[in-house]
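writing this on my phone so excuse typos. first protein, seq and then structure
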Amino acid sequence: MSASETILETHDLLKEFKGFVAVNGVSLKVKRGEIHALIGPNGAGKTTFFNLLTKFLQPTAGTIVYNGVDITAESPAQTARRGVVRSFQISAVFPHLSVLENVRVALQRSLGTSFYFWRSERSLDRLNDRAMQLLAEVGLEHLAQANTADLPYGSKRALELATTLALEPELMLLDEPTQGMGHEDVSRVTQLIKKVSAQRTVLMVEHNMNVISSIADTISVLQRGVVIAEGNYASVSRNPQVIEAYMGSAEAALEGAH
């Protein structure tokens, strides 16, 4: 795989917590323009790995390379400015702002401007067109003036996706994007991820195998901090180690991952 095809790679990434090895020598390559899923049983090290990529944690050893540049020692802000943007497990929007205002705040961040709360709100109107474009991208333009607190859960996650897009990510890290959703919301958000990934690269942690099988190009399976399998859904789902990791049978693998 040439460097231009690879947007992110880790080399022998290791993270220890007082003798406990959470991430154990993970070498991973994420191809530009793909949806790459990271799966594994609870406690496999997925969230710790994400925290290393976004610099909330520093690795014990190993390196992280983004667009050919070693970013291992960078701060979270430096890495975010490169276009690595993470969306959290819990919905990270301002509940008492309108849907439109939430996206506008994110756009202010992307411009590097401060939150000018003392300035006339009209000074932010120039951001409205872009905010509405982003809401249209996630199917929420008709709810622009709604109070965010009143949105159903699936719509809040769609709004969070819009605020993530406002930061102009080149690489989106999605942490359990469909967690806690009913079937209808899961289907909607899955399609949204597929849609917004068109000009971007997505690395996602996800438990729902139906989601992964329908949109992931490449799947890496973590167990106890080690990558035990990698490939497309067909090859990974047949891998004996993966089946064993998910409780001993193919059926349990699929059920256990929901």
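second protein below, same order as before
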Amino acid sequence: MKLTITAYSTALFSTWYFIEEFGLLFDGGDGLSAHLLQKSRKIKHAFISHADRDHLSGLIQFNQLNARDGFPKIYYPKDSGSFPYMADFAAKFDPHVQGTVWQPIEYDQIIPLNKNVRVRSFRNEHMPFPPEVVKTMGFHLERVKRKLKPAFLGMAGKEIAQLRKEKGEAAITEEVVENILSYSGDSPVATDGRFDNTNILIHEATFLRIDESVIDHERANKHSTLEGVLQMVKETNVQQLILGHFSSRYSTEEIDSEINRLVAYFGIKIPVFRIPPGECVRDILKHQPIN
């Protein structure tokens, strides 16, 4: 499936990803509306990974420009108090936005976008909260299909139709989930296989080198390094990789050089794309991969 993905992602300043085919937004940092202009009207579902200001500061203007009855739907981690405050402020500041849906969600919650496509949330480790506290997450974009159970393969169409009529669809088919895209949110690298068989992985890579990511305070927010992400991808069945959230301390040339060095070192063969600091990239997957 071809996806049209437009994004801006610079650590500390702003991050957002727009997937046009599904009217879907991951995070809502500053500049969202200014870059998308009228296309921001296509966004029906906005999933916000956490309440850091660089991931939500564009929501007020986006909502002011695009609110109507029942849309947009803005999903956020249920224990993050910033979002109810923002919803209350928006409704007072721009009374016409009261049709916006602000929806708190749990970990591993499934939100249907249409009959066959859904978003599923998952916990990440950006912030050191107890397991029961829901404040920071990533997302999978999944497509659900049904296929015949092995016992019915090879049967004639008329027989299958009769069985479907007698027993129902669930009796003769099983659900198959395709992971169209995964979005890490701000997070250290996960090694639990959550991105296995993902067609497109969008992952943060705030720091190029491990020594630059040293956390010197136990409550500091955690991020990924480029090296860590590429090492994880080497061991994961990902078809395409989009890297973002680079620190503005790096130039585009420095980032590209390090990507190519590490891609060669780890023997990575899949296409690797990146969002340079300070740049909005339109239709990312139409660009030439860095490698």
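The mean pLDDT is 94. thats all i got for now
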